[in-house]
Amino acid sequence: MDNERYSRQLILKGFGATAQNKLINSRVLVVGAGGLGCPILQYLAAAGIGTIGIVDDDTISLSNLHRQIIFTTEDLDQPKVKVAAKRLGLVSPEISIVEHQLRLDKNNIFNIIESYDVVIDGTDNFDSRYIINDACTFLQKPLIFAAVSGFEGQLAIFNVKDKQGVATNYRDIFPTPPAPGEIQNCAENGVLGVLPGIIGTMAAAETIKLIAGIGQPLINTLLHYNLLTQTQYTLNISVGHDYVLPKSKADFILMDENQSHSNAPIYEEIDIKRMLLLREQDLALVIDVREKHEFPILDQDKFLQVPMSEFNTFIQNNIEAESIVLLCQHGIRSIAAAELLQEKYGAAKKIYSLKGGIAKWKDHFLKR
């Protein structure tokens, strides 16, 4: 251990070499190298967490840089995991960085998280959030939960027993996932750049406290933070009874599949090639459900613009096209619109949603 590197921590009363050794011998997995993940990773590496795993399947885009400050303009289009690992290695060469350049799903999550002591969820979508929670709960892995939206953030610690021997999980707050498009993420709702830095740093602090055994970590406690007023409050989390958790790995996969089949959508998510083919062959009506102020502005001869705020009124009229493709900025509102059409037409029409939205396929729209 490099005593000089960690000297300011080593001299802390109530911390010292004992706590520092706990950090060095710990293994922490950070899921998501985005707005939350970047400050979490930077401070955990600087603090001396011995092994840090990074999970992310995304590449760096220009819209990331206002909040994901581990990256620079020169890193655009590079994998987040590789760039983050390189930067962390420069901060603390003596720690181990494990790269997981993939998206966690029900088939790979157990193999990845089993070797870590603590998992931190810095994702921004509910599918990942519930998969991570259920797997960590089954494996009894401490889970640090962090989330941001707009000007507000939340933080909690799950799967750790309090003094009464009680441990809660994410489903004790939110038993079931919201419907697609019901709650916007930061890509849709926006986020002030400093907010994930604040909540991410808090999450790193809670991780360090939990591993080092100092202070009062947010066990069974949800912290809510408001940036505009600089106020925060905490809520005690109680064990709920209106959900079912998997009792085995096989049950974990089957439960997910059963839920998917029971709510199987009639609409289909497609990529840009399929959408362009449908449009060029005049096989589909393509509807842009973004609001009128959003960019880039698409050719209205090729794309019908019906803002989501007007969509319920629009579908009161009959749509003659047998195939309909919906698109938005990130592929979230288009799913919500697809479900509205599905509710009206059922299987009578072929309904599609552009997966990832215009942001993912922006170059294709700019070229045409």
TrEMBL record:
- Lineage per the UniProt record: Bacteria, Pseudomonadati, Bacteroidota, Sphingobacteriia, Sphingobacteriales
Highest taxon above the source species: Bacteria
Summary of subunit composition and partner proteins:
Homodimer. Forms a stable heterotetrameric complex of 2 MoeB and 2 MoaD during adenylation of MoaD.
Source organism of this protein record: Pedobacter psychrotolerans
Q: What is this protein called?
A: Molybdopterin-synthase adenylyltransferase
* Catalytic EC class: transferase
Q: Which InterPro entries match?
A: Rhodanese-like_dom (IPR001763), Rhodanese-like_dom_sf (IPR036873), ThiF/MoeB/HesA (IPR045886), ThiF_NAD_FAD-bd (IPR000594), Ubiquitin-activating_enz (IPR035985)
Which EC number(s) does UniProt give?
Answer: 2.7.7.80
Tell me the function of this protein: Catalyzes the adenylation by ATP of the carboxyl group of the C-terminal glycine of sulfur carrier protein MoaD.
GO MF annotation: an example: thiosulfate-cyanide sulfurtransferase activity
